[in-house]
Amino acid sequence: MQQVVLIVRPEEAKQLEAAYRVVRRSVDARQKDIKVNLTLLADDEGHYIPIDAPLPHYEQPHFQQVTSDSPVAYIVGAGPAGLFAALTLLEHGIKPIIFERGKPVSERKRDIALLNRNEAFNPESNYCFGEGGAGTFSDGKLFSRSKKRGNMQRVMELFHHFGAADNILYEAHAHIGSDKLPRIIQNIRECILAHGGEIHFEFRVESLAFRDPCPTILAIGHSAHDTYRMLDREGVALEAKGFALGVRAEHPQALINKLFYHNQPPSVVNLLGNASYSLVTQVNGRGVYSFCMCPGGHIVPAGSDSDGCVVNGMSASHRNSPFANSGMVVELHPTGTALDALDYQEHIEHLAKEYGGPNAQAPAQRMRDFVEGRDSTTLPACSYLPGLVPSRLDQWLPEPIGSSLQQGFRDFDRKYHGFLTNDAVIVGVESRSSSPVRIIRDATRMQSVSHPWLYPCGEGAGYAGGITSSALDGINAALKIAEHYGTTL
Ligand SMILES: Cc1cc2nc3c(=O)[nH]c(=O)nc-3n(C[C@H](O)[C@H](O)[C@H](O)COP(=O)(O)OP(=O)(O)OC[C@H]3O[C@@H](n4cnc5c(N)ncnc54)[C@H](O)[C@@H]3O)c2cc1C
Question: In angstroms, how far apart are the furthest CA atoms of the chain?
């Protein structure tokens, strides 16, 4: 077997993809003449492998049946880090016992529907908390900026094993979609339970004084501020870390297609799928960048407490809404304690709530009005279901966030003329793009430096960001526990 790399036009790419087994695909839209990079699998004579041939071999997971006699590890949090840790423990014959504050995914869906309709907010069951963690109703973009942390392909293979489509094994920017993720998460749960693991839903861990102490993976995500505060009270070593905060910007998708596909006709856009972007600039030595861009997506209310207003973005597998949204965030470098950083983040979320509505309505301003310091008397159509309230974000977003974003939008417009437009709206606030806190751990053993039986991992520990790297961090933490028990396969 060999891999053949081709750089072809979108029409040709479509034909090749329909006929042959692709192992990698990416779109290069930097020039007007858009190209698709395709890597095809071929036999030793160079004949491409047909699409209906079996998938290239990969190692199928082998989960062991665990019993009450098996070594045990606790896991706090059933997000990507916690679930992938549980699967890895099972591969090593260790019984995972998971505690998750939220509900199983099907019940969680109902709470999210109520939230989107402004009917109720459940602080324990929302876009952040519940089975699958913040990853369940996310966009499901499966890539990570870091290639250093280990076997990313293994994460993709496990997602595929539990029901993700074949393309996640080869797409450069693989994407599952919020409509498909819940079923995959449910399949993972069923596997954990079938092999003797335990999952306790609606179980919030409020103390570290366990009756039967054992190695414990802390995979709490970065939204559980109450849990961070509990850890601080219990003397767990925490520190503030750099994070990013800003707004979510939404344009009509047709405009983004025009700007980033260089005015290609709809026939070409249809072949390529809706355009996405990744933008970055420096303002006074501070990074301002787009984050978690969702083509054909929706802005969603992603807060975890009723006093704050937080937004994020997601998209379904087809990415076919008429809107393109992205976080637009500014790098911050807190100098105080971990709790100071949480307080600052909450302060801005509370401001957004004050200027938004009584339920999940979010404060918003047209993009050019924001940059030029004007009221938006009307707002454009927007994907955000709970609704928007016109607000002067240019006046209340604290420095350096407001002015850095204003300059950032001007910079992006210089490169992609038309990006800075009043057809776009900015919605506040995108405050949970990364964790402001690190639960300090030993670099080699992955144990908390203050509590060696704790294995902080995932996004909430401050060592990962996004689904893939959090899942991988969970796998690595579980491998350390397997070493501890001497059960390395
Ligand atoms: C709307 C949205 C869209 C996103 N889109 C993407 C995307 O496209 N691609 C991407 O890579 N990332 C995306 N993300 C980020 C991604 O979801 C997170 O990076 C990832 O889920 C982090 O995984 P984790 O397991 O570390 O933490 P989480 O997923 O946050 O899971 C932590 C879990 O711990 C539970 N928990 C917390 N405290 C306790 C406690 N005291 N007791 C018991 N349980 C507790 C929580 O309920 C939660 O279920 C998105 C996030 C959101 C909100």
Answer: 67
Give the C-alpha separation, 43 to 472, whole Å: 32
- Would you say residue 55 lies in a domain? no
Q: Does ligand 1 lie within 6 Å of residue 356's CB atom?
A: no
Q: Looking at the chain, how many residues does it have? A: 489
81 pocket-lining for ligand 1 (C-beta < 6 Å): yes
Beta carbons of 176 and 140 less than 8 angstroms apart: yes
Residue from 14, 48, 443 nearest 457 by CA: 443
| 105-116 and 181-194 helices, crossing angle to 10° | 150
> Which of 84, 111, 129 is the best mutation target for the ligand 1 pocket, counting ligand atoms within 8 Å of the beta carbon and taking the most?
129
Q: How far apart are CA 466 and CA 146, in angstroms?
A: 10
Question: 212 pLDDT exceeds 80?
Answer: no
Domain check: are 265 and 400 in the same one? yes
Coil vs helix vs strand at 281: strand
The protein residue whose alpha carbon is closest to atom 17 in ligand 1 is 135
Q: Is the CB of 459 under 6 A from ligand 1?
A: yes
Are 328 and 419 a contacting pair, CB within 8 Å? no
Residue 346 confidence (pLDDT) above 90 = yes
Is 14 found in the same domain as 103? no
- For the entire predicted model, the pTM comes to 0.94
Same domain, 220 and 342: no
Q: What is the pLDDT of residues 53-88, one digit of tens each?
A: 876 667 789 999 999 999 999 999 999 999 999 999
Ramachandran sector of residue 443 (left: φ over 0; alpha: ψ -120 to 50; beta: rest): alpha
Q: Which atom of ligand 1 is nearest to the CA of 136?
A: 17
Q: Do 289 and 229 fall within a single domain? A: no
What is the CA(268)–ligand 1 centre distance, in A? 35
Q: Select the more confidently predicted residue: 80 or 179.
A: 80
Distance 80 CA to ligand 1 centre (A): 7
CB 177 near ligand 1, within 6 Å: no
Q: Are residues 382 and 425 in the same domain?
A: yes
Same-domain check for residues 110 and 136:
yes
**Structural domain harbouring 11:** 2-42
